[in-house]
């Protein structure tokens, strides 16, 4: 790992530190916001509004946000967004301090934080390949570290810290999250500037957004990469909707044990992120993606058939490993093959498809559990993941991946050859 880090540019260390700090703050707020909402009301629908508000920006502005990121300076977009989120969190922190929190305020904050996340995540995905020279091996290593840090901070350290900080005062976790965004903004602001993409003919925002979406749907490799998280979200939300009920009724797991069950999945995610680059080198990225998708499907089937909590925890850990590796390999490949002027729109289109699919999975899981039994959504989810693996295996084959990487390398060489020698990097 140390040897790998020496091959990554110095700027990546600052980006990694920024996302690590920010992920810790995200984990704190993800635990604190629902608990703060619970202090205001016990109405399940009101609590659901706060939870759903954070996902709405991707559904409403996903593709348009990507088009804007492709117009803007990516580094500036990241640090301005984080600075704005730091200021935003001062509002609910003050409201909590003066005991005037309300559900509409918390929902509005969750929505705006989600909107900031849309711009930051899309800009970061677009900035990273420029920083690393679109080198696919470096991108895999970099995304492995970014994903590992995100899982560790937002999945392990952040939530318990958020709960503990809430005991010190309602405003404390919000203040800590604000500080994390401010530190992230300062770190991102110190990153090296990258050349702006070659400007396109001036078109309307909607036309540019459509162009980005069309690029995904007309490219079989990119479409396969987008379909996997979209179908995966249907399956995983179907499981997540009934997982607590399944764990309680069929496995006899109490509240504390359920937390450990989720920790097993996060542990697998860390392992998957760590071995993703190795899998890509040994199997080829396309085959590795097919294998990790199949592992997820079989693991969910194993969870459905689990006779006790230990087997269920192992199944979730295996599933998390597949998910962790997939979430490193797929974005790295996308960043390596998509032209710089389209990467924001392609990334946001893929993310929007995944987010739009999630509610269908939640509805499917609830309906299957109500109509049949609590194990049925798990069996259906496992079958759906395996079917998706079979359908997309040819779309993301090693042959297609290698052809796309060669095409990207040729395009990058032509761009560099045509760039004036005295070109100035935009600040």
Automatic annotation (TrEMBL):
Compositional bias (Basic and acidic residues): 404-414
GO cellular component: plasma membrane
InterPro entries associated with the record: MFS_dom (IPR020846), MFS_trans_sf (IPR036259), TM_effector (IPR010290)
Membrane topology of this protein: Multi-pass membrane protein
Region feature Disordered, mapped onto this chain: 404-427
Any one GO MF annotation of this record: transmembrane transporter activity
UniProt subcellular location: Cell membrane
Keyword Transmembrane listed: yes
Listed PROSITE patterns: MFS
Superkingdom, natural source: Bacteria
The entry's keywords: Cell membrane, Membrane, Transmembrane, Transmembrane helix, Transport
Main location: membrane
CDD domains: MFS_MefA_like
Major facilitator superfamily (MFS) profile domain location: 1-400
Residues passing through the membrane, by range: 45-69, 89-120, 164-188, 225-246, 258-279, 286-304, 310-331, 352-372, 378-396
Pfam families attached to this UniProt entry: MFS_3
Keyword Glycoprotein belongs to the record: no
Protein name: Fucose permease
Organism field: Micromonospora chokoriensis
């Amino acid at each position: 790992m140390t040897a790998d880090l020496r091959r990554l540019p110095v700027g990546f260390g600052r980006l990694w530190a920024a996302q690590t700090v920010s992920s810790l703050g995200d984990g704190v707020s993800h635990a604190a916001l629902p608990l703060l909402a619970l202090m205001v009301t016990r109405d399940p629908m009101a609590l659901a509004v706060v939870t759903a508000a954070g996902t709405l920006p991707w559904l409403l502005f996903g593709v348009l946000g990507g088009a804007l990121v492709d117009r803007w300076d990516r580094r500036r977009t990241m640090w301005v967004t984080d600075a704005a989120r730091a200021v935003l969190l001062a509002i609910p922190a003050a409201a909590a301090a003066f005991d005037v929190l309300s559900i509409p305020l918390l929902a509005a904050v969750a929505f705006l934080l989600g909107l900031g996340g849309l711009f930051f995540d899309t800009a970061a995905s677009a900035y990273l390949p420029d920083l690393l020279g679109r080198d696919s091996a470096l991108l895999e290593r970099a995304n492995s570290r970014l994903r590992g840090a995100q899982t560790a901070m937002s999945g392990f350290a952040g939530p318990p810290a958020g709960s503990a900080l809430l005991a010190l005062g309602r405003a404390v976790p919000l203040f800590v999250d604000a500080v994390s965004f401010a530190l992230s903004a300062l770190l991102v602001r110190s990153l090296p500037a990258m050349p702006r993409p070659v400007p396109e003919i001036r078109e309307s925002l909607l036309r540019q957004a459509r162009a980005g979406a069309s690029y995904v749907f007309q490219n079989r490799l990119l479409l396969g990469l987008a379909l996997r998280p979209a179908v995966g979200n249907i399956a995983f939300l179907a499981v997540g909707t009934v997982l607590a009920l399944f764990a309680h009724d069929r496995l006899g797991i109490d509240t504390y044990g359920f937390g450990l069950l989720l920790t097993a999945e996060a542990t697998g995610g860390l392992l998957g992120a760590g071995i993703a680059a190795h899998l890509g080198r040994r199997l080829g990225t396309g085959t590795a993606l097919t294998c990790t998708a199949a592992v997820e499907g079989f693991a969910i089937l194993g969870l459905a058939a689990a006779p006790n909590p230990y087997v269920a925890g192992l199944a979730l850990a295996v599933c998390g490993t597949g998910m962790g590796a997939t979430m490193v390999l797929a974005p790295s490949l996308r960043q390596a093959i998509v032209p710089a002027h389209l990467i924001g729109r392609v990334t946001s289109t893929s993310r929007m498809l995944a987010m739009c699919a999630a509610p269908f999975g939640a509805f499917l899981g609830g309906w299957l559990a109500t109509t049949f039994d609590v194990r049925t959504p798990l069996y259906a989810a496992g079958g759906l993941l395996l079917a998706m693996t079979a359908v997309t295996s040819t779309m993301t084959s090693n042959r297609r991946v290698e052809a796309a990487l060669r095409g990207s390398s040729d395009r990058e060489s032509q761009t560099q050859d045509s760039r004036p020698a005295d070109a100035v990097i935009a600040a």
